[in-house]
């Protein structure tokens, strides 16, 4: 199997944020090239001021993040995820994928994407797989395409488990950063009355609408291209945000506008080392009522205090 090397190039001031985003795509680490502090670091470590000429020629204004992904881990989804999250952070970037083009990676990955059981009720079924037994579960038919959200990443599965617990018949759902629409569609299949998905990626919104159609819930789903502050209106019973920690912190300033007294706010995409930052960024009026964790990733559920 050919692994894919994804290289993300950003300005050096953005390297830490971009590295945190890249880290979310793989469980086994990334490699970062950052030569901005080359002389100082060499002097501190080696106590010498002689440095190889080739190193001195490296661009000090940019850093490169190297991510290595197996075909079974869906390189196409990783590229989409990185693009969406960097765009949301306003970070300029260049992405290079070696070994295969993104579309080719997606087709190769399909060989490894099997139906996935999530929680007690759901089965995520890739539309190209007919050899499956639902075992009494609710089947979510999914074609993620190049949008993030296939159910293979821990952050999405944790969100689905939380949705299974908190979705009720007639619920109104707001899905921030909807990606493939997997969370919205799952909520509708679980009994929600309506779902609104918002994403800054137009391709993701298109994918989410198509997945709603595949699952016969398109009449109850609204996909919106844009950002939350400009596009969302009204109040919702459940709000999901499967994004990165920094974006959740930014979102927390506006989230109460869309919450009723008993709204459940589900946040995912939080790596454990950023948990304290996310908690500190939450409005004082909210409290954590539930927590899900898998392989260093966290999903939190919050409500207004005393509700």
Structural write-up:
- The protein is an alpha/beta fold.
- It folds into 2 domains: 4-108, Alpha-Beta Plaits; 155-304, Rossmann fold (3-Layer(aba) Sandwich).
- Helices cover 31% and strands 30% of the residues.
- The protein has 11 helices and 14 strands.
- It has a 7-stranded mixed sheet with strand order 10-9-8-11-12-14-13, covered by helices on one side.
- Helix 8 links the parallel strand 9 (194-199) and strand 10.
- The protein is globular, with a radius of gyration of 20 Å.
- The model is unreliable at 37-52 (pLDDT under 50).
In round numbers, the mean pLDDT is: 83
Give me the CATH architecture of the largest domain, please: 3-Layer(aba) Sandwich
Unreliable stretches covering 5 or more consecutive residues: 37-52
Distance between the termini: 52 Å
User: Main beta sheet: strand number and arrangement?
Assistant: 7 strands, mixed
The strand count comes to: 14
CATH superfamily of the largest domain: Vaccinia Virus protein VP39
Could you tell me the radius of gyration in angstroms? 20 Å
Major sheet strand order: 10-9-8-11-12-14-13
Coarse morphology: globular
**How many H/I helices?**
11
Q: Provide the number of structural domains.
A: 2
CATH class of the largest domain: Alpha Beta
Helix content: 25-40%
Structural class: alpha/beta
What is the CATH topology of the largest domain? Rossmann fold
What proportion strand?
Answer: 25-35%
In N-to-C order, the SSE pattern is: EHEHHEHEHEEEHEHEHEHEHEHEE
């Amino acid at each position: 199997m050919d692994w894919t090397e994804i290289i993300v190039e950003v300005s050096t001031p953005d390297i830490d944020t971009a590295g945190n985003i890249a880290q979310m795509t793989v469980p086994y680490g990334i490699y970062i090239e950052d030569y901005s502090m080359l002389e100082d670091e060499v002097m501190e470590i080696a106590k010498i001021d002689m440095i190889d000429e080739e190193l001195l020629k490296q661009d000090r204004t940019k850093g490169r993040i190297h991510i290595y992904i197996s075909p079974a881990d869906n390189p196409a989804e990783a590229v989409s995820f990185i693009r969406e999250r960097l765009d949301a952070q306003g970070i300029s970037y260049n992405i290079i994928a070696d070994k295969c083009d993104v579309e080719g990676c997606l087709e190769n990955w399909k060989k490894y994407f099997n139906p996935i059981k999530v929680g007690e009720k759901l089965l995520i079924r890739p539309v190209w797989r007919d050899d499956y037994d639902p075992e009494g579960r609710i089947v979510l038919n999914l074609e993620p395409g190049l949008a993030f959200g296939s159910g293979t990443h821990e952050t999405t599965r944790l969100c689905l488990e939380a949705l299974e617990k908190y979705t009720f018949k007639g619920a109104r759902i707001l899905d921030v950063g909807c990606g493939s629409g997997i969370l919205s569609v799952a909520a509708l299949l679980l009994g929600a009355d309506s779902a609104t998905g918002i994403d800054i990626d137009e391709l993701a919104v298109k994918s989410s609408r198509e997945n709603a159609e595949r699952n016969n819930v398109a009449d109850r789903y609204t996909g919106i291209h844009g950002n939350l502050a400009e596009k969302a209106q009204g109040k919702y019973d459940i709000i999901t945000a499967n994004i990165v920690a920094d974006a959740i912190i930014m979102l927390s300033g506006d989230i109460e506008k869309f919450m009723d007294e008993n709204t459940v706010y589900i946040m995912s995409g939080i790596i454990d080392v950023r948990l304290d930052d996310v908690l500190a960024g939450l409005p004082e009026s909210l409290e954590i009522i539930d927590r899900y964790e898998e392989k260093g990733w966290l999903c939190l559920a919050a409500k207004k205090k005393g509700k």
